[in-house]
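Anyone up for a design puzzle?
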């Protein structure tokens, strides 16, 4: 009888080990057994996040956006990416309080529209606050990641946020950049060491080199030296205030522009680069084509009124004036 009981006990023990092993194989533990993951990557406008340089990424139903110079990510996805499971994300409707309380890691507390973040009760001031957009709560990625033990880097050219464990070397994210269609190299060589990152980004988007001018204060321009008579050309301007102008222009010596072939692909490239998931992009592009045609058909004597669109709080303007069939403007406001 004792031998029989011993065999049964041993069998139960073995089965329990197998069950634990099977559970461990299927469970996704982004902390890898209470150890911070090697890297977490978010990209503005992209509905995926990436853990440990693995692609494809984890899908999201909304994308990160920039507001007041900071990257915002939906609370659930940011928390999950940094290792906080859904059951440890708390929400107090009355206090409008978000709590991240993953066992073994700092307890993080934030309040909507409040610039104080607490990590294990220790307060720290942020320069922005959590916000609610379309009934969704968004958190500032940098401050939350740092509160949970990460250090954070922002690539303004690629608009990518990278977080990795504090004190460790910055990880390789080459596969993620390749997946996103980003060049893993730095921005193109510059004729000015102080060239702003956003100017370098525009150069990469359009395959041109922008030079600094001072015609109305400091700004960076691209205008081709040879401007064709029979078709439109691209002019770019980036003001130090942060505003971007992408102009589809004609040669200023022309008296009649009705025969010019208008190419609005520079506007399309810019929309796809800056607002890759904006459902309004096709609508904006169609309106740009319409505005350009009004100008061309009337030999510049008719211009369509300016039109404003908004995406994640960023204004996008189409306008027509000067020697431009149509301009896409991304204002700094």
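Challenge accepted. My sequence:
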């Amino acid at each position: 009888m004792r031998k029989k009981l011993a065999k049964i006990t041993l069998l139960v023990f073995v089965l329990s080990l197998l069950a634990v092993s099977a559970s461990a194989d299927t469970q996704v533990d982004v902390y890898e057994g209470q150890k911070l993951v090697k890297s977490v990557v978010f990209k503005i406008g992209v509905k995926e996040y990436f853990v440990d340089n693995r692609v494809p990424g984890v899908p999201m139903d909304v994308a990160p956006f920039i507001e007041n110079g900071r990257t915002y990510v939906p609370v659930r996805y940011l928390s999950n990416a940094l290792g906080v499971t859904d059951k440890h994300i708390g929400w107090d409707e009355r206090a409008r309080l978000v709590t991240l309380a993953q066992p073994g890691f700092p307890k993080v507390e934030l309040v909507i529209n409040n610039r104080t973040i607490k990590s294990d009760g220790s307060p720290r001031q942020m320069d922005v606050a959590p916000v609610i957009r379309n009934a969704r709560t968004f958190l500032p990625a940098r401050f939350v990641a740092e509160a949970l033990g990460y250090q954070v880097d922002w690539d303004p050219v690629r608009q990518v946020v990278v977080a990795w464990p504090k004190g460790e070397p910055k990880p390789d994210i080459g596969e993620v950049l390749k997946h996103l269609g980003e060049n893993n190299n730095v921005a193109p060589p510059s004729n000015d060491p102080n060239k702003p990152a956003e100017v370098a980004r525009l150069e990469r988007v359009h395959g041109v080199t922008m030079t600094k001018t001072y015609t109305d204060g400091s700004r960076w321009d691209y205008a081709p030296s040879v401007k064709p008579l029979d078709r439109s050309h691209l002019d770019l301007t980036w003001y130090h205030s942060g505003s971007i102008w992408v102009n589809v222009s004609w040669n200023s010596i022309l008296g009649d522009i009705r025969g010019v072939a208008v190419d609005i692909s520079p506007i399309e490239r810019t929309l796809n680069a800056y607002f890759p998931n904006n459902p309004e992009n096709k609508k904006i592009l169609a309106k740009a084509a319409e505005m350009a045609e009004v100008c061309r058909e009337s030999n510049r004597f008719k211009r369509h009124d300016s039109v404003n669109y908004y995406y994640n709080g960023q204004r996008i303007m189409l306008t027509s004036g000067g020697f431009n069939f149509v301009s896409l403007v991304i204002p700094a406001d």
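A detail worth pointing out: Residues 197-330 form one domain.
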